[in-house]
Amino acid sequence: MMAAATTCFAMVSCGGNKQAANDAAADAEAPAVPEYTVVENEQIDLSQFPQDAEGYYVIFDGKDMKGWRGYGRDTIPARWVIDDESIHFIGSGGGEGQVGDGGDLVFSKKLKNFELLFDWKVAKGSNSGVFVLAQEIQGKDKDGTPRMEPIYISAPEYQILDNANHPDAKLGKDGNRQSSSLYDMIPANPQNFKGDGEWNTGKIMVYKGTVVHGQNGENTVEYHLWTPAWTDMLQASKFSQEKWPLAFELLNNLGGENHEGYIGLQDHGDDVWFKNIRVKVLD
């Protein structure tokens, strides 16, 4: 495990640097980031997976969930099952509460530059998501008891949603909580979700800080990590420094020092299916 980074404060020279003083004041006023640890677990070797003719590793072949495990766990939560050659989350109806036999799913290999392809469908009114560059973050309860923080405070989310029937589609701003959007930050354009019960194709490409979302054969979102624009988007979202200082620190330095992390599938309490999951390393 790695110890959490502590907040740094700008130093002001005797000559009086106004900008440095302003920076120091801003840092001093920023909400404190709670203590946390990045949990480092054993990773799987991609060479154990077959490659298709296009050079993509097939990380789910419809037969078993080799390489997958629960977020913060070494086993697969019972609500994630194989159903007709797809990974199916059996909805609990509990929303983000994640009952004991649920929880998010991660592929146990940290990736840096890659293209992820997958097919997905949702039941009527369902909500889920796909995460990239995720870390496993352990925090503490008020009494000091260790607990896992939610995956979405360290990873951007490709939204999976039934736009027609889930209320989140009308929340956020300009549709930025609809399918294939960067959740709560950038709306997908065009919005070409096919509807509940229908299979959709998804794509997430991450390359040297550029991230592109795709849905049903069209690029829908593009953004650029580790830039002032990225920081500004975080500050305008529910992950801002003021509203959620831990999420802001982790997302602003997405992927940590090595700019790499896990692929994750979200348990949002609703039925969702994924299949044909493939990844190409772009390093």
Write structural notes for this entry.
With 283 residues, the protein is mostly beta strands. The chain contains 3 helices and 17 strands. The longest helix has 12 residues, at 18-29.
Please summarize what this structure is.
Helices cover 10% and strands 33% of the residues.
Pattern of helices and strands: EHEEEEEEEEEEEEEEHHEE
- E-strand count: 17
Strand content: 25-35%
Radius of gyration: 19 Å
Oligomerization state of this entry?
single chain
Q: Major sheet, described briefly?
A: 8 strands, antiparallel
Indicate the structural class. mainly beta
- Tally of helical runs: 3
Topology of helices and strands:
Layout: E1 2-3, H1 18-29, E2 37-39, E3 57-60, E4 68-70, E5 80-83, E6 86-89, E7 105-111, E8 114-122, E9 127-134, E10 136-140, E11 146-148, E12 157-161, E13 200-207, E14 210-215, E15 218-224, H2 228-235, H3 245-252, E16 261-265, E17 272-281
Antiparallel strand pairs: 1-2, 2-10, 3-17, 4-7, 5-6, 6-17, 7-16, 8-13, 8-17, 9-12, 9-16, 10-11, 13-14, 14-15
